[in-house]
Design goal:
Number of strands: 12
Low-confidence stretches: 1-22
Helix content: 25-40%
CATH architecture: 3-Layer(aba) Sandwich
Number of helices: 12
Structural class: alpha/beta
Radius of gyration: 19 Å
CATH class: Alpha Beta
Number of domains: 1
Strand content: 15-25%
Mean pLDDT: 88
Order of helices and strands: EEHHEEEHEEHEHHHHEHEHEEHH
Distance between the termini: 17 Å
């Protein structure tokens, strides 16, 4: 660990769990990551990674918050049933991509579409109810004073009838006995891993096609991290969910995902199969603690 008068200007390199041999500034990580980009990523590359069958497509998106522009001509493609992990330095715009897809940013230009239908300007409720997009927050978003069952009912707040939400909750209890055993208890008594399972499960009540997952491993013990990724793996491969995630543990995220994108300063610097980015020595040095 760096000490002394400049210690607050330094950060450890990498998001992985392994040994870190060097310490450079966040600005240096961003600068060196920018150098990886070369000529950038072509639309053809994105199309090939999505196997030419994009379910969700982002084209030349410029977006941010108020007067602050975060994303600059950002594009993305992902096919139905694929998983994609966004990695990059802090402040690169990773969560802003999820926010933009879900309708939480100010979009200045560009488009977002599902199956060729433009959904750029839809509000969050319509993104969930009509486009089938669910967003799983990185923060602890359960209602601690409500029971586990009541938390699940809240996931169906857009359903026309309360009984529909209750029926969906029962299906989830059948799938996850661990939650069923806690159904009458308040969410405040759940472990960190159980809370994350409840957050994911609540997002499933509306039966979305696309899951936006923001930092699924944050704040969890290693045993619970494995559990959460096993749940996401099952949702992708058994239920055909399309998953776009931001993950601070870049190694874990790329191991899980079919596709990896490296973001730098609101732009796409690299894209490739997750397994190939894991093997890239420069990606490893900057983001994986290698």
């Amino acid at each position: 660990m760096t000490t002394g008068p400049d210690s607050d200007k330094k950060r450890s390199v990498g998001y992985g769990l392994g040994k870190v041999d060097s310490v450079i500034s966040v600005d240096d990580v961003s600068r060196q990551a920018s150098e990886l980009a070369g000529e950038g990523v072509s639309v053809q590359q994105l199309t090939e990674l999505a196997k030419g069958q994009a379910l969700l497509s982002i084209q030349e998106l410029v977006a941010g918050y108020g007067k602050m522009e975060i994303l600059h001509s950002f594009s993305l493609q992902i096919a139905s049933g694929q998983s994609l992990c966004l990695i990059g330095p802090n402040g690169a715009g990773k969560s802003t991509i999820l926010h933009s897809i879900y309708g939480l940013t100010d979009i200045r230009s560009g488009s977002i579409s599902i199956d060729g239908q433009d959904i750029t300007r839809l509000g969050t409720n319509r993104k969930l109810a009509e486009a089938g997009i669910a967003y799983i927050l990185q923060d602890n978003s359960v209602f601690p004073d409500m029971s586990v069952e009541e938390n699940l009912w809240m996931g169906g707040y857009l359903m026309p009838r309360t009984d529909d939400a209750k029926a969906a909750a029962e299906r989830i209890f059948e799938k996850y006995p661990r939650l069923a055993a806690r159904r009458g208890q308040t969410a405040s008594v759940l472990s960190g891993g159980e809370r994350r399972l409840l957050e994911i499960s609540r997002a499933l009540v509306m039966e979305p096609r696309i899951l936006l997952v923001d930092e699924p491993s944050i704040g969890l013990e290693p045993r619970f991290i494995d559990m959460v990724f096993e749940i996401l793996d099952d949702l992708q491969h058994s239920e055909g969910k399309t998953i776009i995630m931001v993950e601070q543990n870049a190694k874990k995220g790329l191991e899980f995902s079919d596709i990896g994108y490296v973001l730098v300063s609101g732009e796409l610097a690299m894209a490739g199969p997750g397994s190939e980015l894991l093997e890239d020595p420069e990606v490893g040095r900057l983001f994986l603690g290698g």
